[in-house]
Design brief:
The complex is a heterodimer of chains A (about 400) and B (about 210). Chain A has about 400 residues and is α+β, with helices and mostly antiparallel strands. Chain A has 16 helices and eight strands. Chain B has a three-stranded mixed β-sheet. In chain B, strands 2-5-7 form a three-stranded antiparallel β-sheet. In chain B, helix 5 runs antiparallel to helix 6. Classes of the chains: A alpha+beta (about 400), B alpha+beta (about 210).
Chain lengths: ~400, ~210
């Protein structure tokens, strides 16, 4: 049944390739023949040290009064040579570096990389490890979306309150991560063919407690925010991303789904054991910031459903494929692409092996970077204050954009 | 009605504000230096070198095999192998690290060194209050600063330490059994050699006789 959706999406993709990129709020840029600014336009470099850019990121904005006429994202300030470093170290040694891509969701990054290497080397993940992976990934999604909503509200001027409530809840999840993996954010937990350590005693109960209590927090959070008139007026009809453009720009994740495209890799790819869980994929209607905010809230609720099912069904058994080797790991020559539905979108790792201990080519498909490409289309015609909100709603992390 | 959403939100804020005085779940902060949250058992910060016994340098388990140096993702470990050898707990002759430095300003606490170490000799510490006024020298730890006793390891990671002790004990038992077997074999061989040496005396006339034939 899901397959039909995939084909439909693919067909749509083919169909809309021809259409020009629509810009709903087009204002004629007041540029003269040579492309220089004319009249009273003002060019502002927003960033790289602007607090609302979520890291070191610059937007070269051309303003007509307060209205954005042109916007150019400039990034690369946090470039750390991730791909080249990975090509020069062993497969295992790249694992902790993947934590530092999207530092909010280290466990999903680990999973995507492990998935690619497992495809390359033909490793089989034991049942229990698959369940642990799903549980940790959904917890990661929960804390990422919680933070994102907090940050989004911070961008709108709700200084502190929603963010503090979000961080209070996130701390509980990070405590769980720490007791499992040893680190709060840089988990470095998954290994090729399984996970590093088994769940410590009491961990499952802790995760169950979060899964049980989180809906209450979400209700509170929604009471605080969803009906708030200021939030509504700041988000509705702001930063609309049309469906066709979203598909054309290969936007993924909640941003794509907020534009009404039913594309979730957990349903499409069914990687890991996601075909065993019952959950729905929330879809937006208008593709504005409000939809993107709402999608996150709804996705958290679906994540909780998956968590409940996974915690119930987790079996006993080994947590790592006995064939896997820590040292001297040399997969056969070949190539593999492993992708997962990260909290921010499709996170993929493309690896080519030439039989040596290092990958010959190592490439990351970062969702943040690719989602960022539609920023200008979303911002044109809005005020500079809305740019901040729109950028916040894409949910970028500069560690992943610049790598 | 316009404004109800905001009022609803205000009620939520008020509930959290009042709750922070009465409800543990709503007030999660602690006054840090005076009050500390107990560390999780799995917590890891920076590596240290385990030693057995009283003398940190003599009892150090590290045999300078340099696997951790090779596998360390940010390359923060620097090891120089000793020229001479010494006997380890198994009674085997092993190298020891003449120099073992870890630059903890580079270390990213990934614990891959711990995973790849075959000798249970490098483990993760939980010490996190490491701020210092010296940016370079103070953060480059040498083998004297890195050496910490097995008792310390048992204290910070009881479960892991028990596993590690079991591995060491098994290795030791194996080595002892082997040594015992070796001694027995040697004794047996010696006895046989002795017997052989004595044997010709008893049957002296035979070999020359056969040799002459």
């Amino acid at each position: 049944m899901r397959n039909s959706v995939v084909t439909q999406t693919t067909l749509e993709l083919m169909a809309v390739t021809e259409s020009p990129s629509p810009r709903q709020y087009e204002i004629l840029p007041k540029l003269d023949a040579s492309g220089e600014l004319a009249g009273d336009l003002l060019e502002v470099a927003m960033g790289p040290h602007h607090p609302s850019t979520h890291g070191v990121f610059r937007m070269d904005v051309v303003l007509d009064g307060e209205t954005v006429v042109k916007l150019k994202p400039v990034f690369g300030y946090l470039h750390r040579n991730h791909e080249k470093i990975a090509e020069n170290t062993s497969y295992l040694a790249s694992m902790p570096y993947t934590d530092r891509l999207d530092y909010f969701c280290s466990l999903t990054n680990n999973w995507a990389y492990a998935l690619a290497v497992e495809k390359l080397a033909g490793l089989v993940v034991p049942e229990r490890a698959e369940y642990i992976r799903v549980i940790t990934a959904e917890l990661t999604r929960l804390q990422n979306h919680t933070c994102l909503v907090g940050f989004l509200l911070m961008d709108m001027g709700a200084l502190g309150t929603p963010l503090m409530y979000a961080f209070r809840e996130r701390e509980k999840i990070l405590d769980l991560f720490e007791s499992l993996t040893g680190a709060r954010m840089m988990c470095n937990y998954m290994r090729f063919g399984g996970c590093r350590v088994d769940l410590p005693p009491g961990w499952r109960e802790g995760a169950q407690k979060i899964a049980d209590e989180y809906p209450r927090f979400l209700d509170e959070f929604e009471n605080l925010l969803t009906g708030n008139e200021i939030l509504l007026s700041r988000t509705q009809e702001v930063g609309v991303l049309p469906r066709a453009l979203a598909i054309n720009a290969s936007v993924t994740g909640p941003v794509l789904r907020a534009s009404g495209v039913d594309y979730d890799l957990r349903k499409v790819d069914k990687y890991g054991i996601y075909d065993r869980f019952e959950f729905r994929v929330p879809l937006g209607d208008h593709g504005d910031v409000y939809d993107r905010y709402m999608i996150r809230i709804l996705e958290m609720r679906e994540s909780l459903k998956i968590l409940q099912q996974a915690l119930k069904g987790i079996p006993d058994g080994p947590i790592i494929d006995p064939k896997t080797k820590l040292r001297g790991f040399r997969p056969k020559p070949g190539e593999a692409y492993g992708r997962i539905e990260g909290p921010k979108g499709e996170l993929g790792f493309y690896l080519i092996s030439d039989g040596s201990p290092n990958p010959y080519r190592y490439r990351v498909r970062p969702p943040s970077l690719i989602n960022l490409t539609v920023l200008e289309d979303m911002c044109l015609g809005h005020s500079i204050a809305d740019v901040v909100v729109i950028l916040g709603s894409i949910d970028i992390v500069l560690g992943e954009v610049d790598r | 009605m316009l404004g109800t959403g905001i009022l609803k939100g205000m009620v939520e804020t008020a509930r959290n504000f009042v709750g922070s005085y009465t409800d543990e779940a709503r007030l999660t902060t602690v006054e840090y230096p005076e009050e500390r949250i107990p560390l999780k058992e799995a917590t890891r910060q920076f590596p240290f070198l385990v030693f057995d016994g009283d003398d940190a340098q003599k009892g150090m388990r590290c045999v300078a095999c340099q696997i951790c140096e090779k596998e360390c993702p940010p390359q923060c470990i620097f090891i120089v192998k000793s020229k001479d050898k010494r006997t380890d707990y198994k009674g085997q002759l092993q190298f020891y690290p003449a120099t073992f430095d870890i630059d903890i300003s580079v270390c990213m606490s990934c614990q891959i060194c711990v995973e790849v170490c075959p000798f249970e000799s490098i483990k993760m510490d939980t010490e996190f209050e490491l701020s210092n006024t010296d940016r370079f020298g103070a953060l480059l730890l040498n083998k004297h600063q890195l050496a910490k006793s097995n008792e310390h390891y048992r204290e910070i990671h009881p479960t892991d330490a028990a596993e590690s002790d079991a591995v060491i004990a098994a290795e030791k038992a194996k080595a002892e059994a082997k040594a015992k077997a070796d001694i027995e074999a040697k004794a047996k061989a010696a006895a046989e050699a002795k017997a052989k040496a004595e044997l010709p005396a008893a049957t002296v006339p035979v070999p020359p006789a056969s040799g002459q034939v």
